[in-house]
Amino acid sequence: MPLREVYITGLNSDPNPTSGLGVARSLKTAYPNLKLVGVDYAVRSTGLHDTIFDDIIIMNTWNEIDLNTYANQIRKWLSPPGCYWISNLDVEIWWLAFSLPDMEKILIPPISALKETRKPHVKAATELPFKIPPFIMASEPDDDIFEFFIRHGRNVWVKGPYYEARRVTNWSQLKAEIRSLRRTWGEGVYIQANINGREELIAYAAYEGELLDAVHVVKLLTTPEGKTWAGRVYSPPREIIRPLKHTIKKLKWTGGGELEFIRTAKGELYLIEWNPRFPAWIYGATIAGHNLPAKLIEAASGEAGLKIPVISTDFIRVVYEIPTKINLDEPVVSKLSMEQIHISKHPSGMPLLARTLYKFTPLHDLLTRYRYMDDKKHKQMRCVKTMHLRTLKRYANSCEKTPTFIFLEKILKNRLMKTKHILNNISEELGVDISAAYSIKTNPDERVLKMALSNGFLAEAISWLEVEKALKCGFKYNQIILNGPGKMWPRGQFVNKIFALFADSLTELRHILNLTASADITEVLGIRIRAPFVNSRFGVNIGMYDEFIALTKLIRLIPMHVRIGLHFHVPSIIVGVHVWTDVYKTIVKLARVLERACGREINIIDIGGGWSPKAWDELFLPKLLPKLVKYAQCNLNNLEAFLLEPGRALVEPCFILLTRILEVRKRTGNAPEVVVDASIAEMPQALYKPHRILYYDTTTSKLIPLRKGDGIILGRLCMEEDILAMDVDFPKSIKENDMLIFLDVGAYDMSMSYTFGRGSICTI
Amino acid sequence: MHDLRSIIKKLEKIPITRVHSHSNRCCEIARTYIIYLDLSLMQDSDPMEPPTWLRARYEWKPVKHPVFWCQIPSMEGMDCGLFAAVTREIYKARGVYTLPVQMILKYPSYVSKHWISLWRKSNLNANWVVGEYVYHEAVAILCSEYEVKIYDPTLNVYVRPGKHLDRATVVAIKILAENDRLCAHVFLSWDGKWTKLNEWVILSEQLRYCRDTGR
């Protein structure tokens, strides 16, 4: 069958290009007389203006395309012998595979292969030497997403089901990006952990399951969005190419393909994407002697193209101007600047097609397979144990004044006992005293402090007012740890010796040493350390050699009978577990150097708090803590005690906030907004973290956990930011005077709440 | 290939789109709502500035005519005629003189087939499409006594003589002056091109970027 013409779609060639132009240039190199027809969906798709195309088809935007008509048109265009279609648009490939599965001249993978390589959980990668970076679907409950977010150091990517990845580092940004990508692409948005390492790529061409050729590219330059701007072409490593061949066969792959992966410093390979098309840099492979599009056309048509020698193994992109083939519309000058109708960000209109396809069945089912995948968990009232539900119902029933914080005493008792029990076991096993000091600032409720004391906890104070509070609740001086930058404020007077005192700076350490010269004020004198390369306002920065030397001199001045401690506090809830563990190890290693430099032994390691309840229960106590203690034992000659300062991890789930619904705002075509009598004044953490929420129907006395949806819970304040929760689904029965119960308010929500909007100000 | 004259003859039967009124408070309130929405959004702007918000608020989609004012605030989309009609009303309320514009655009026929399908799916007659020729409406804004700018509210662009409009070539244009003071004029200058009023002016018949391959 003589080769006649090739239709190439996806021609945009801006800094975030599609691959059509690279495919066209590769084909023209091998087949100089081949007729190339460029196909795209907007004049703004820049590559269609290139003279390489003998003809161009600018179709309607996807919302103005009748898909059946288009399928018939493509069928007709490809009906003459020797005509082929190479699609370079992911969503278009899905549609073509679904709508024209019998068209062998459309050189794309079958729908079964697309299913197997669909992200984020790329099933086909199981036989390849890749790991999949941890991910969570955006349809999962917010508290699970938040846990994922903090465990990965608040450094994750929000990704669309086909295109787009946006790096996020704070919770409100994460929520906003999820909403934005859902608006653009529909369902299938997910959140993936960031993996540090070098970005590498494999591109290949395959025909009916036979791998025709492949290249391995290391990115040398990238755009701010991470797109390849320069690369070096290698032959693919054997450990990838062998299983890839096998997998391609199994998938019966036809067309181009690209694997995007990250090589970590440990040599692990993480697969980020498996794209069902050639990459945009494909001409870079062609100049390196691997003309993959030509190999594909050769396999399909049987007509061999010209071979070109290797010109260079490295490639780089350039930007230059060409005349347009058709005028672009001139933007109208207007006070209300609006994006042009054919939005330049996605000139090929893939979001429109994605949203159109979403309406299809059965393609719809395929595309939404992740939606509410944990429905079962919801049905099991996964957020609250049944025993607690009864208690909550009782409180909701009897509650007259709202908003009200309710203390769930039993939950705290259990958490304290369990923690103490585990600490004792590890203590016994490793022969080191492990103590936990309850962080008073997290929630200074007297009932909490007393319960902590009765369960064998010490108290950690950050001000003298907190010391007095601890004493009032029954703690003795020698059960108190004093920490933080303003610990003596407002009237620090050491009547008795406290258990431990940690200096936050060299200046403060000098001051404390002056005090110790005249009085025996503490059993342990410690220093808070700032680890090198950690951005923090706290502690002595021993990454600076001057500070390190000054510290060693001061440590030598600590009286011999006073034990020496080191404290570091980088909340894992901020930096993530991996970074936290790395910082811990750095601190312990530096403690060893300190020991050598000043000739004194470090006796106490205090690792602070900052763990989420879930991470504390599932990870820190059972798995991480024994390893941390052992690590310190291995590195320090005379480790006597190990201190923890938990607050949030213990008390966050132990309080709830009962609120009453003031108003239900039903909105045409949108989920309702509900106004409650609480606000960010009672729940200031609403801006930074999600809360699990229960709905209490006052008519039926039923308690229902709120699922994800499009509803919004507004606070009572006339402040724009007073939004207590977004993306919630309200039961139809919701009405004024019913109650919403916010869980997980026991930590900084309570302790940082303020009196805004109550006709009074905080009296200092 | 169709003969352009016969196409014009066929398409000029389409009456210029207007927004109808029930002569009732429902339409009066809705019209006032749209007019004041424009005033509130455009505040200190030059009154000649196009009401770009209209295109941001409404999609382009099939619409069943006649359309009454009271329907407009709750509509999701408008067709080109309705966009132009509402834009003219907005300019009128601002005190800017405008004239209806009818155009015949030439698209590759593979494009217009989809519009026919979409209109049929909405049980509407796609009589505004004849092969590769498409009837379209816009607004001529009178900038001085003899000078107009032509604004296309559907595409939110100014139409320029000799330039493409989206992917289309503007093959013919007619600026209508109906029973008003401009009837005395025979020609108006449109971006420097003298254009006869109330008559079809043929501009170009070629789609330069696209080879005619029968697609």
Per-chain topology:
The complex is a heterodimer of chains A (764) and B (215).
Chain A: E1 5-9, H1 20-30, E2 35-40, E3 55-58, H2 67-77, E4 83-86, H3 90-99, H4 111-116, E5 135-137, H5 142-151, E6 156-159, E7 165-168, H6 171-185, E8 190-193, E9 198-207, E10 210-222, E11 228-234, H7 238-251, E12 255-263, E13 269-275, H8 282-287, H9 292-301, E14 314-316, H10 350-358, H11 363-367, H12 375-379, H13 386-398, E15 404-407, H14 409-430, E16 433-439, H15 446-454, E17 458-461, H16 464-472, E18 480-482, E19 498-503, H17 506-518, E20 522-530, E21 540-541, H18 545-556, E22 563-567, H19 572-575, H20 577-598, E23 604-606, H21 613-635, E24 641-644, H22 648-651, E25 655-667, E26 670-676, E27 693-697, E28 702-705, E29 707-714, E30 723-729, E31 739-742, H23 748-751
Parallel strand pairs in A: 1-2, 1-4, 2-3, 16-17, 16-24, 17-18, 18-19, 19-20, 20-21, 20-22, 22-23, 23-24, 26-29
Antiparallel strand pairs in A: 5-8, 6-7, 6-8, 9-10, 9-12, 10-11, 11-14, 12-13, 15-25, 25-26, 25-31, 27-28, 27-31, 29-30
Helix pairs in contact in A: 1-9, 3-10, 14-21, 17-18, 18-20, 20-21
Chain B: H1 4-11, E1 19-20, H2 25-42, H3 53-57, E2 59-60, E3 67-68, E4 77-78, H4 80-94, E5 98-106, H5 109-121, E6 129-130, E7 133-144, E8 147-152, E9 157-159, E10 169-175, E11 187-190, E12 193-196, E13 201-202
Parallel strand pairs in B: 1-3, 2-4, 8-11
Antiparallel strand pairs in B: 5-7, 5-10, 6-7, 7-8, 8-9, 10-13, 11-12
Helix pairs in contact in B: 2-4
Describe this protein's structure:
The complex is a heterodimer of chains A (764) and B (215). Chain A has 764 residues and is of the alpha/beta class. Chain A has 23 helices and 31 strands. Chain B has 215 residues and is of the alpha+beta class. Helix content of chain B is 27%, strand content 27%. In chain B, strands 5, 6, 7, 8, 9, 10, 11, 12 and 13 form a 9-stranded mixed sheet that branches. In chain B, a hairpin with a 4-residue loop joins strand 8 and strand 9. The model of chain B has no long low-confidence stretch (mean pLDDT 90). Chains A and B meet through strand 3 and helix 2 of A and helix 3, strand 2 and helix 5 of B.
